[in-house]
């Protein structure tokens, strides 16, 4: 299974580092286990009056050496272990991010950003934390237990006594078997509720402007409150069960200690054991309680981590919807015609097609206009050309090659797409425009911004092209954002340019200027232009009118006006509106 490999591969690649960390922590516990037996011997010598000042010094130094040795070794082992955990966390996040970048728009439209953030933050941290703790605590408990057994076996302490003292501790595995799966399912519910809360917070923050303008903060608070309540309920249910589990462990430890003291005290009085042996066993039982308690914690966090790991597994197993065929080839965009044959397309899980029986051919260098009512399928057509969604095979050809057989990188390099809502990143305006190639000279960035008629606005900004945008900087107006996004598309100078309603938010004068610039810079290159305003596309070599996913009219501006159909009435309406 791919997902399981997320952790497995990491441990495999770092096995020697883990061996080193485990060995150092193990050695620390071996040293630690010497403490009770030394104290026991000291007690016996003290009781037999055989202890000289030199002997006391000797024992003092020995115990000091044990404490120091344990501290240094344990600290060093811990450091190595946690360092490995943190490196895993960092690498896992890189791997997940890389995986996300390969997933299609469909995946992101189905899964909220909050959920993905929860994968990246909560789940990865949960796995890291529990792996690091599990290694630390399991190593400590196992080695300590083993060395205590070896030490006791080599001593003259009666076996029956040891067995009776340890007996209550043997119930721990049974408790683990009982509580484990229950804790696991509750912790999964906590993680899911956390993801839902992050999702909700993300959406509420994203829509905060709308919320405020509609003065519906209370509704937003209530919606968010519900997700928080859900986390609280799920967390409390988890805490109830894990607290019960954790409290049972020290109780069992306490019972062992009582048996040790009562039975051991009696054996000592009978002379079956020396006082030193009694002290040593008491200290050993005391010493064992903590690691056994820790094992309980490990089981708890492991349950949580395995739910997280399961979610990460499933995520990494998702195959990107858009796959490149094995023998995909690059295209020569500059000479590439676009041909669409009988294209009918339905979005995944949608009831009816968004495009039906679309057929058209665009020669290299042509300018094509697409107009139509909202929801008529204009954007969908562009997304299919880019393979943001997959068109059926045999329906879209670029340069005579089915888009399924074109290398995705080549397809997207040869097409520049300016979407309706151009997202601007929290960086400088220069980097936002030179997004496709950040190495481009400032002169190229300036040129593109002139073409998009945004140059003048940028020169008025405090730091001109170096002005920071977004969260850490300035907010541009809708029209400025749109033109910045247009400049980003133009600077790519791709053989095919797709403009999705890219001048809708500018005034008529600026629109005219942009269209004039476009005609100049795009001469000889293919441009597909979606617009609601006829003024933006009347110059096109051909215009397609879409309605409910079908081409209902096509031709030049003049031809369409002569048809006297939808286009003509739209034109009349818009002309009237202007005059
Ligand atoms: N991701 C999606 N999943 C399901 N249906 C979708 C998706 N995106 C768009 N649609 C549907 O497909 C149809 C066409 O949408 P599209 O965005 O292509 O229209 P459009 O002509 O570009 O509209 P507008 O002018 O408003 O931008 C609409 O009915 C829309 O609801």
UniProtKB/TrEMBL annotation:
UniProt GO molecular function: ABC-type oligopeptide transporter activity; ATP binding; ATP hydrolysis activity
Highest taxon listed in the record's lineage: Bacteria
Mode of membrane association: Multi-pass membrane protein
Domain (ABC transmembrane type-1) ranges: 19-304
Entry-linked SMART domains: AAA (SM00382)
Domain ABC transporter span(s) in chain numbering: 338-573
GO cellular component: plasma membrane
InterPro entries: AAA+_ATPase, ABC1_TM_dom, ABC1_TM_sf, ABC_transporter-like_ATP-bd, P-loop_NTPase, Type_1_exporter
Keywords carried by this UniProt record: ATP-binding, Cell membrane, Membrane, Nucleotide-binding, Transmembrane, Transmembrane helix, Transport
Origin species: Insulibacter thermoxylanivorax
Membrane-traversing stretches: 15-39, 59-77, 134-153, 159-179, 248-266
Protein name listed in UniProt: ATPase
Cellular compartments annotated: Cell membrane
């Amino acid at each position: 299974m791919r997902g399981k490999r997320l952790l497995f591969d990491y441990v495999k690649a770092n096995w020697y580092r883990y061996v080193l960390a485990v060995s150092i922590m193990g050695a620390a516990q071996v040293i630690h286990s010497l403490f009770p037996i030394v104290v026991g011997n000291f007690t016996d010598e003290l009781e037999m009056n055989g202890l000289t000042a030199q002997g006391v010094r000797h024992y003092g130094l020995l115990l000091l050496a044990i404490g120091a040795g344990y501290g240094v070794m344990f600290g060093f082992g811990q450091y190595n272990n946690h360092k490995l955990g943190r490196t895993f966390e960092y690498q896992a996040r890189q791997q997940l991010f890389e995986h996300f970048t390969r997933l299609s728009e469909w995946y992101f439209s189905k899964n909220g950003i909050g959920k993905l953030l929860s994968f990246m933050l909560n789940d990865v941290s949960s796995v890291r934390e529990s792996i690091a703790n599990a290694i630390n605590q399991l190593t400590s408990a196992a080695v300590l237990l083993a060395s205590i057994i070896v030490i006791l076996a080599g001593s003259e302490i009666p076996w029956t006594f040891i067995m009776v003292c340890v007996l209550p501790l043997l119930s721990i595995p049974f408790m683990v078997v009982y509580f484990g799966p229950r804790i696991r399912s509750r912790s999964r519910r906590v993680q899911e509720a956390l993801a839902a809360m992050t999702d909700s917070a993300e959406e509420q923050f994203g829509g905060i402007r709308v919320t405020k303008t509609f003065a519906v903060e209370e509704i937003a608070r209530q919606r968010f409150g519900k997700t928080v309540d859900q986390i609280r309920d799920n967390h409390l249910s988890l805490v109830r069960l894990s607290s019960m589990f954790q409290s049972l462990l020290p109780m069992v430890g306490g019972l062992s200690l009582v048996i040790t003291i009562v039975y051991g005290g009696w054996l000592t009085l009978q002379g079956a054991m020396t006082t030193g042996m009694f002290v040593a066993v008491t200290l050993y039982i005391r010493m064992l309680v903590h690691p056994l308690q820790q094992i309980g914690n490990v089981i708890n966090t492991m349950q949580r981590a395995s739910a997280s790991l399961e979610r990460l597994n499933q995520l990494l197993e998702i195959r990107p919807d858009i796959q490149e065929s094995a023998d995909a080839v690059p295209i020569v965009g500059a000479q590439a015609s676009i041909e669409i044959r009988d294209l009918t397309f339905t979005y995944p899980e949608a009831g009816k097609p968004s495009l039906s029986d679309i057929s058209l051919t665009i020669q290299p260098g042509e300018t094509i206009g697409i107009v139509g009512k909202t929801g008529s399928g204009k954007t969908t057509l562009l997304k299919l050309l880019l393979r943001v969604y997959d068109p059926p095979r045999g329906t879209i050809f670029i340069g005579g090659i089915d888009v399924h057989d074109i290398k995705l990188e080549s397809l997207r390099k040869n097409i520049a797409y300016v979407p309706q809502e151009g997202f601007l990143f929290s960086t400088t305006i220069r980097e936002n425009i030179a997004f496709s190639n950040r190495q481009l000279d400032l002169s190229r960035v300036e040129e593109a911004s002139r073409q998009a008629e945004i140059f003048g606005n940028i020169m008025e900004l405090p730091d001109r092209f170096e002005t920071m945008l977004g969260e850490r900087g300035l907010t541009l107006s809708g029209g400025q954002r749109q033109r910045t996004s247009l400049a980003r598309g133009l600077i790519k100078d791709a053989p095919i340019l797709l403009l999705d309603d890219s001048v809708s938010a500018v005034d008529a004068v600026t629109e005219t200027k942009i269209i004039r610039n476009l005609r100049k810079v795009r001469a000889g290159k293919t441009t597909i232009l979606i617009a609601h305003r006829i003024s933006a596309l009347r110059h096109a070599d051909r215009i397609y009118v879409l309605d409910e996913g079908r081409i209902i009219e096509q031709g030049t501006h003049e031809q369409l006006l002569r048809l006297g159909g939808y286009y003509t009435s739209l034109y009349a309406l818009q002309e009237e509106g202007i005059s």
